[in-house]
């Protein structure tokens, strides 16, 4: 095939209910590809990286040379890895896969080796201020057809807590968006002792209420020490969790050795990591069961596929990160990869607010608790510039946590 020189590289920023940064690459022949460049709370850093430092380098290069472009961007930056660089490289990589699919007339999953399964199992979120509220939220997800559900609950006597929807106040729709658009960083209170003593009773109730079939997950969101994490994993064992996520901050991967010694609850980690080198000790030592990375923050389809294939050698499976801060473009890319890899585990699905659908037209579909990326050539996502123009960027920040005595803690 002849070369497809890149004519333009555009960074598109829009905020249909929340901020999204999208990269659009167009070839001389007018073929376009989209990539997700959204890094929640630090969006403009990636936008500048792409617009000011990457776009000028790509003009005139061959859009079909995906691996070469990946290696060029990674090595020519000199300063390696990190979320900003790896999100920027991911956006270029995903846009080039989109273009390649359109040139070939095939959905991206076909280019990755074809479907290894009919569809990708997804998990939804349910949360509540108390058990009644959480029960309503779980029943709503079950009625929608989900078979795997992440449970988060407010801890009695503590305001906020991680992952609690404002749905009750908004007529029931699950609406969890931690990046606050009004003002600066919001602070949440946190008390690990209350959390550790309350959470097992919540899962005991959930099993009694919803039975043994439903797959249940939980995210501890980086807040525990290794011994606290070990205790939590052990105390949740009778309730058969699909996974327990981010039990400790991942800065010290070897801390998980201690957790592993004490519990058989499956562990998922990695949404704040961004390269195969970050994951290497976790995978090689079998300290985790699921790789919690996203296409968007981990160097794109090319690099996340590499991580998943490395993980497959150790019987570690995929569990792609898919909150609302992964755009519909990033979600589509994840689903193509989910369908094609062998060691697929589960995909997170946190449905975007309806406004996002005005900017991003997707062809992925949900049925009976699983998703399929669709069969349109490329990723199957279109971007509506006119709709995007109605939603200007608004600064938004993720929260921080503080212990009851005022000490800053991991959020
Ligand atoms: C969470 C995320 O989906 C998850 O598992 O940990 O919602 C995370 O808090 C956000 O992506 C932060 O931007
Ligand atoms: Mg998480």
TrEMBL record:
Residues 131-266 form the Mandelate racemase/muconate lactonizing enzyme C-terminal domain. One of its GO terms (biological process) is amino acid catabolic process. One of its GO terms (molecular function) is magnesium ion binding. Pfam families: MR_MLE_C, MR_MLE_N. PROSITE patterns: MR_MLE_1. It comes from the Bacteria. InterPro entries: D-mannonate_dehydratase-like, DgoD-like, Enolase-like_C_sf, Enolase-like_N, Enolase_C-like, Mandel_Rmase/mucon_lact_enz_CS, Mandelate_racemase_C, Mandelate_racemase_N_dom. PANTHER family: D-GALACTONATE DEHYDRATASE-RELATED, STARVATION-SENSING PROTEIN RSPA. This is D-mannonate dehydratase. It comes from Microbacterium kyungheense. The lineage of its organism: Bacteria, Bacillati, Actinomycetota, Actinomycetes, Micrococcales.
């Amino acid at each position: 095939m002849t070369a497809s020189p890149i004519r333009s590289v555009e960074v598109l920023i829009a905020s249909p209910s929340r901020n999204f940064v999208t990269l659009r690459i167009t070839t001389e022949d007018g073929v376009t590809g989209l990539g997700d460049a959204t890094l929640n709370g630090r969006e403009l850093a990636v936008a500048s990286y792409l617009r000011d430092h990457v776009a000028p380098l790509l003009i005139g290069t061959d859009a079909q040379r995906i691996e070469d472009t990946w290696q060029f961007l990674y090595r020519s930056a000199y300063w390696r890895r990190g979320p900003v660089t790896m999100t920027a490289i991911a956006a270029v990589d995903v846009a080039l896969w989109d273009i390649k699919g359109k040139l070939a007339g095939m959905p991206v999953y076909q280019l990755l080796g074809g479907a290894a399964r009919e569809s990708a199992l997804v998990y939804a979120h349910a949360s509540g201020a108390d058990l009644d509220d959480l029960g309503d939220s779980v029943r709503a997800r079950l009625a929608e057809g989900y078979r795997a559900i992440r449970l988060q609950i407010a801890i009695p006597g503590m305001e906020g807590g991680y992952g609690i929807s404002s749905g009750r106040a908004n007529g029931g729709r699950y609406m969890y968006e931690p990046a606050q658009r009004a003002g600066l960083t919001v602070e949440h209170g946190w008390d690990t002792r209350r959390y550790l003593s309350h959470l097992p009773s919540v899962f005991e109730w959930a099993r009694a209420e919803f039975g043994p079939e439903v797959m249940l997950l939980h995210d501890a969101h980086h807040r525990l020490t290794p011994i606290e994490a070990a205790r939590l994993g052990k105390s949740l064992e009778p309730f058969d969790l699909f996974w327990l996520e981010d039990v400790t901050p991942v800065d010290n991967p070897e801390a998980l050795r201690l957790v592993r010694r004490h519990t058989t609850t499956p562990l998922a980690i990695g949404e704040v990591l961004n390269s195969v080198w970050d994951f290497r000790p976790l995978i090689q030592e079998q300290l985790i069961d699921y790789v919690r990375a996203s296409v968007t923050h981990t160097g794109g389809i090319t690099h996340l596929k590499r991580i998943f294939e490395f993980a497959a050698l150790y019987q570690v499976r995929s569990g792609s990160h898919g909150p609302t801060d992964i755009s519909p473009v990033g979600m589509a890319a994840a689903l193509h990869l989910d369908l094609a890899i062998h060691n697929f585990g589960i995909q997170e699905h946190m449905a975007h607010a309806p406004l996002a659908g005005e900017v991003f037209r997707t062809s992925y579909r949900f049925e009976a608790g699983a998703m399929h990326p669709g069969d349109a050539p490329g990723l199957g996502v279109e971007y509506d510039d006119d709709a995007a123009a109605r939603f200007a960027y608004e600064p938004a920040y993720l929260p921080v946590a503080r212990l009851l005595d005022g000490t800053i803690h991991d959020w």
